[in-house]
Amino acid sequence: MSHTLGIRQAQKQKTRQALLDAALQLLEEQSLSSLGLREVTRAVGVAPTAFYRHFRDMADLGVALVEEALDSLHTTLVALLAATGDGKDDGEERIAATVELIVAYVRTHPAHVRFIAREQHGGVQAVRSAIGDQLALFAQEVKDQFAGEPDSAGWDEDDLLMLARMYVDHMVMTASSLLEAAPGTEQRVAVGARRQLRLLSLGRHHWLDER
Amino acid sequence: MSHTLGIRQAQKQKTRQALLDAALQLLEEQSLSSLGLREVTRAVGVAPTAFYRHFRDMADLGVALVEEALDSLHTTLVALLAATGDGKDDGEERIAATVELIVAYVRTHPAHVRFIAREQHGGVQAVRSAIGDQLALFAQEVKDQFAGEPDSAGWDEDDLLMLARMYVDHMVMTASSLLEAAPGTEQRVAVGARRQLRLLSLGRHHWLDER
DNA sequence: CCATGCAGTTAACAACTGTTCTCCGAGATT
DNA sequence: AATCTCGGAGAACAGTTGTTAACTGCATGG
Fold it and tell me: Counting beta carbons within 10 angstroms of the beta carbon of residue A69, is it exposed (0 to 12), middle (13 to 18) or buried (19 or more)?
């Protein structure tokens, strides 16, 4: 594969990406259901009708944005699981590394984070369920990771998934909190996030105590 | 006070409420930043210009909706704290009662729940911070409740607030999940919510273990 | 080298938006 | 009874929206 796809399709994907970028930027101050097709094409410097060469409508573009955003997040998640998955380091180190990775991600992909947080419960059905599906998939991966750890011996399948979901949800929530935090306040948010992870970790360790 | 406010102001508040109700209903399928002034007045059956007699713009109406929605939620929260606050019942009963109250609230105020979940991270700044402030206030109340319980002996102030925030966030998240759950699936969501609360409760009990 | 495919353009459309100004009529005030 | 107040109606405005149709020019594959 990959025979340096012709100058033709290259240009197409270039403007397509320009549309996605422009939309993502415009979405910092509004939500998808109020973002107009013309608004996006105007920002790119292209005729309104050119939009239809790439997307059926704005909802379609929204779904494409979900894929782009959650793909980059997925990369981060894999890195996170790989870095903290050896089971050697005890809880505290693992927690610190996790939060630090989230902080770094938010710093490098703020617009993506805002988009996911906003449209997760937003007004466009197709986008909402696209995000929901992807996050459920993330939870599955986290669960699989957990399943291989000694701490999870004797755990129910459903309980493991529930735990994984809590971690994923907490990850998204923390990222969103970091975004809205006043400049300079990010460290406070990070401290809070570590404390919350510590609580979850404690709950996990004592889950099977009284059984 | 309250001398049966004249038939004049009565009519005014009546149409004002009609505007709020219509907006809340229209918001089930879109988000606030895309909801138009004319759309709302049309649904009520009133001239577009009448809108300005009650709200400066849609953002202003949004803030009013926040107050209405979170006021009803606050009532539920107080009931929740009162019902589970005697400290007598052990964790499991308390958890079941909490989840059941959330389920009941979602069933009776679905539109309010959807609105809060959607606009919490939505595109209208004023509404976002209005919701944030109210939820922070809820967390304070929960914290005060926790502070009076024996389980919280020796707890740091910040840690208590962090715990309270986790409970409030979990409450909102559970309510939102119940909304999006396929009909008949609510019971599954409720079971998951109970498990999550159990985990939080376990974390809480062992918070001071290794200090 | 030429015919075809196709990303992007131009022009036009009916529909809709927020906002202003002017007016009306009925409740409130004296 | 006369006057004032003010919630709401009506008409008009400049701007914007999504979508259509027919076009242009260039990379592409035979």
Answer: buried
Q: Are residues B198 and A206 in contact, defined by beta-carbon separation less than 8 angstroms?
A: no
Which residues in chain B have their CB less than 8 angstroms from residue A31's CB? 31-34, 122-123
Main-chain phi, psi angles of A26, to 5 degrees? -65, -25
Report d(CA B186, CA B190) in Å as an integer.
6
CA B166 to chain centre: 14
Question: What backbone torsions phi and psi does residue A198 show, to the nearest 5 degrees?
Answer: -60, -40
Spatial distance from the CA of A184 to the C1' of D16 (Å): 39
Q: Does B206 touch chain A (CB under 8 A)?
A: yes
B contacts of A201 (beta carbons < 8 Å): 203
pLDDT of B2 reads 43
Q: How far is CA B133 from CA A171, B73, B154, B189, in A?
A: 22, 14, 28, 27
Buried b / exposed e over A46-55, threshold 16 CB at 10 Å, is beeeebeebb
Six token digits for residue B84: 């589970």
| Per-residue pLDDT at A167 | 97
CB contact under 8 A, A120 and B122: no
Domains of chain B: 57-205 (1.10.357.10)
Burial B156-192 (b: 16+ CB within 10 A, else e): eeebbbbbbbbbbbbbbbbbbbbbeeeeeebeebbeb
**How far apart (Å, rounded) are the C-alpha atoms in residues A44 and B192?**
45
Task: Give the mean pLDDT of chain A.
Answer: 94
CB A28 within 8 A of CB A111: yes
Tens digits of residue pLDDT in A38-81: 999 999 999 999 999 999 999 999 999 999 999 999 999 999 99
Q: What pLDDT is recorded for position A88?
A: 58
B185-201 pLDDT, tens digit each = 999 999 999 999 999 99
3-class DSSP state for residue B98?
helix
Query: Chain B window 102-131: which residues touch A at a Cβ cutoff of 8 Å?
Result: 117-118, 120-123, 128
Distance A131 CA to C11 C1' (A): 39
